[in-house]
């Protein structure tokens, strides 16, 4: 019998996409806690060694802000507000912030693990991929030492996973996850705005089959994903204007944003080059895109929106540290690993994952990550 | 049409179904009644063969099949049965009724057992009309009940109902209007506010007035903070429940396979109550939509509930030439003249194992009844009601209908699903709520003094430890397309929510003890929070406008900075959350053109605010007044499918 056109869809085409792993909430939480345990230890270690991390700077900023008074006008100076708010509210200072980042890392790894299980990836390959990602110093130092940036990365990863669920598997839960995570990511790090811009491109690409089938779904899908970000920014801008008379921090958020000091085109080339190097540390994403290219080229192109977003953010002067770029590209790759990979693809993925991790160590060895490693005596 | 002539005088119903009929493939004597009808020329041999084929598939009684198919008239069928039973046939509509002696009898029981005393003879015995086979056991049981010898006569089931409505008119009216009040006063909205509640309101009012007189600035600031926080909490609760609903979207309550697996023979009789009042214009559509239901016709017991003074709708219903499965039930005139009272009257005559309410303009999914049967069987015995989703066939008629569609999409597809998943009380929607009939009777039926009797019933079920769930089927309705009509409708709904809040919070401690903290808080946030958030809109809008128009120094004189910041932030965030869930609801329904209309939700809520203040006024001045919503205003044809 024919159902009316606006009746609920009878069932999802890919019901496995909705299956949670492990099945119960308690087990999932235990797993997240277990995965975050090593990072918690690293966060404590960083604190014990008295190393100056981003978390320490954040704690100092929050303390200074607290001393300067909490009039509504002053509140608007803390954009993006989530991390400073956490620093103000959490007892335990930088150490507690490190633990929050470590817990977020556990959640992130569980998210990747769950995706790999759902994609029926062989167990040995799951172990290799997760070990390569989780043991990479870039991830654990960022998680334990820079909660503000790392939370933004985790939220962006959740947004990517949500977008895939929402657009590819028609799960509205994914739409909620993507929209809300993106908005929260912007409240953690304004660089996430570049990813919000990328949604315009990602929606028609990732959801191509739906776009072809349902008129207007591209615009409505974009609206659904972007609305929370627009609403949050709009509300913040209004409050800022109301209480300070100007919109300085929420819309003109970063001191170097939109300043193309080396020229517009040269800046673009430099940004592309940098993200290219970061992408070489996360080759799993490229392998996944190549595998998908044969069957669904537009969806594969949609996966590459993430590196494009990074290029955009870097080009516009929104500060995205290399470590965060690598982590984001790496976990995005894990979340879109091809379903049921054959032996050849599995082998390629394993080799690429290990090579990517090694590349990440080499690339970041000279930077802040390297300094932290040396400070820890590693 | 077999019933057309008699429907004006005597309502119709499906032939009685004896106990255990569902388990018997072919009832005893079925072949004989068929042969008798062929012999008397009422039906042909081919028609009998066809009916026997249907009977083999559905297990229904032969007479019911023939009646539902319009192959035989009710009087012909029962006259033939009377001959077989060896008793005289009586046309109850043509004999004087007026036995006041039997008023002590319970009309509900008589309706279920299908007999009625109609006449006392000179020798002291009583003539009893029945549409069930007059066996010796049955006669003995009736004689015990009446305390006299009886003479049984056969009549049609319509005639039994007709006689009951005439003989027991006052009792039926009283039971429908005051039954709940008498049996379970604490759950009735007849008394709006208890003495204790009145005292609490008075104290609060005095404190507020005192505060405004003594310290106006701080009092206004305090009220503003409370209103803003309350608004955000109420909206955030809805948002959280919707998230849970979205999370459970992959859980299909009843799959297509489970629905298809139920064979016609396993389907029970299903009663459909359709209260109609001044809706002559939609009756033809109603008949078409009921005819489209994928359910064995002879197992449908459709009761069209017509008010005594509504000749226009009655005439339209007769003109629509409904099938023999449709019974006209006349609802006695009397206060309160409300839909729940009509439904209570219908409940007396309901013969189905399950029961559903549809509005006259409803267009349910054709398999909704089957799906609901599957949901009940799957849900276990404590599941007393399942609510189907409501949506609109004229969603894109104008701005108002679009906003309606946005609201209903999130409410029925996310909110109720979330409430069901969290096992929180579910306020039932106006129509398409399916009940186990016996459980509905145990709950006390609908409260005729509550103007959102459906929402109240859902909460009452939870308060009495019964479970209400949802079923994945949709009924398409007509969205209100006129603003005044909208305010009337909403003011009734909001007044009903206020009534329901007052009723169920009469004994808050007892409520918590009965249903637990989680359910009690869920109830308070949803049922009390909804009207409260609408009432909060105008002061919050006023604050927003004032903060834009007035210089900061002027605002600072009244509002401490943090109060203003928090109030505005809560207001903006709350509205954003509601916009977002509305967007998601229509996206799920694939109504992509409506997604951006969700941005107008804050203005839509202003309309709600108008209705909410009207409701508040009515709660004080006319608490039981039923604001009638006009239907049939749309130019969109429901048969064309949703647009």
Secondary-structure map with pairings?
The complex is a heterodimer of chains A (378) and B (643).
Chain A: H1 25-48, H2 54-67, H3 72-75, H4 82-89, H5 93-118, H6 123-134, H7 137-145, H8 147-168, H9 172-188, H10 192-206, H11 208-213, H12 217-244, H13 264-280, H14 283-293, H15 297-303, H16 305-315, H17 322-335, H18 343-364, H19 368-375
Chain B: H1 30-39, H2 45-58, H3 62-68, H4 74-85, H5 107-113, E1 115-120, E2 126-130, H6 136-146, E3 150-154, H7 157-167, H8 169-183, H9 195-214, H10 216-247, H11 256-261, E4 270-276, H12 283-291, E5 300-307, H13 311-319, E6 326-331, H14 339-349, E7 354-357, E8 363-364, H15 368-379, E9 383-392, H16 399-421, E10 433-436, H17 437-443, H18 453-463, E11 467-477, H19 483-504, H20 508-515, H21 517-549, H22 552-558, H23 561-588, H24 601-621
Parallel strand pairs in B: 2-3, 4-5, 4-7, 5-6, 9-11
Antiparallel strand pairs in B: 1-2, 7-10, 8-11, 9-10
Helix pairs in contact in B: 8-14, 9-10, 10-16, 10-21, 10-23, 16-23, 18-19, 19-21, 19-24, 20-21, 21-23, 21-24
Summarize the structure in words:
The complex is a heterodimer of chains A (378) and B (643). Helix content of chain A is 73%, strand content 0%. Chain A is mainly α. Chain A has one domain (23-375). In chain A, helix 10 (192-206) packs antiparallel against helix 15 (297-303) and helix 14 (283-293) runs antiparallel to helix 18. Chain A is globular and about 60 Å long. The model of chain A is unreliable at 1-5 and 10-14 (pLDDT under 50). Helices cover 54% and strands 11% of the residues of chain B. Chain B has helices at 30-39, 45-58, 62-68, 74-85, 107-113, 136-146, 157-167, 169-183, 195-214, 216-247, 256-261, 283-291, 311-319, 339-349, 368-379, 399-421, 437-443, 453-463, 483-504, 508-515, 517-549, 552-558, 561-588, 601-621; strands at residues 115-120, 126-130, 150-154, 270-276, 300-307, 326-331, 354-357, 363-364, 383-392, 433-436, 467-477. In chain B, strand 4, helix 12 and strand 5 form a beta-alpha-beta unit. In chain B, helix 9 crosses helix 10 (216-247), helix 10 (216-247) crosses helix 21 and helix 21 (517-549) packs across helix 23 (561-588). Classes of the chains: A mainly alpha (378), B alpha/beta (643).
